[in-house]
Amino acid sequence: MGRRGGASGGPGGLSFSGRELRDLLVAWLALGVAFTFFLERELTRIVFLQFQGLSLSAAAGTFAVSLLTVGIGFLLHELAHKVVAVRFGQVAAFKADYKMLGFAVLGGLVGFLFAAPGAVVHRGRLTAKQHGLIAVAGPVTNLALAVAFLVPFVASLISGAGGFLWEVARMGLQINLLLAGFNMLPFGPLDGRTVREWSTPIFLVVAVPSILLGLGALFVL
Questions:
Q1: Active site residue 78
Q2: Dihedral sign computed on CA atoms, order 142, 143, 147, 153
Q3: Considering the entire predicted model, what is its pTM?
Q4: What does residue 162 show for φ and ψ, rounded to 5 degrees?
Q5: Alpha carbon of residue 201 to chain centroid
Q6: Where exactly are the structural domains of the chain?
Q7: CA distance 136 to 119
Q8: pLDDT tens digits, one per residue of 91-148
Q9: How far is CA 16 from CA 11, 20, 79, in A?
Q10: Residue 108's CB: how many other CB atoms inside 10 A?
Q11: Of the residues 20, 40, 42, 78, which is catalytic?
Q12: Would you say residue 202 has pLDDT above 80?
């Protein structure tokens, strides 16, 4: 999710401040923890100091899967916004929303998950087309990642293989389709609204399949 506003740094090249790298790392880890709590319900026993029946190896595996799927999907989505913004001469940086990250972790604990970890903010003069291209870069990146995860997913289905790699492929495919579909909704600060304000035809070309695939991923995978 890209956002217009202030950012630190200078235009003309892709660079990362120490604060931005910290925000990216914290957001990546927090999302991994939030999804681990959400998917491993037994892990919530830790909060109440009840360790019976808790498999730490299963929790560690889920955390690793979350980092490689949710975390990577989120990071590359935001970096795609930044790369395109910088290409247009913008000052751009990712800024984590620590309140929303805390809410995501707490939500995962109670079985309700809504993740809005932050956004790339940028400043400078842009046309509507440039704003639209910056916005659409994130969901398109998630669609490309979904295709990348689809290959091992189909291979696992054909071979009947399971285990860690199967779970990474399945969840990577599902999460990236959900991220693309959700972010292309034309509401609020989501990317879809910016794309629609620039070009309705391009919005429809990207949003319709993204949203349909996201719904399919939610109910089928």
A1: yes
A2: positive
A3: 0.85
A4: -130, -150
A5: 25
A6: 2-220
A7: 14
A8: 899 999 999 999 988 888 887 777 788 889 988 789 999 999 999 999 999 999 999 9
A9: 12, 6, 11
A10: 26
A11: 78
A12: yes
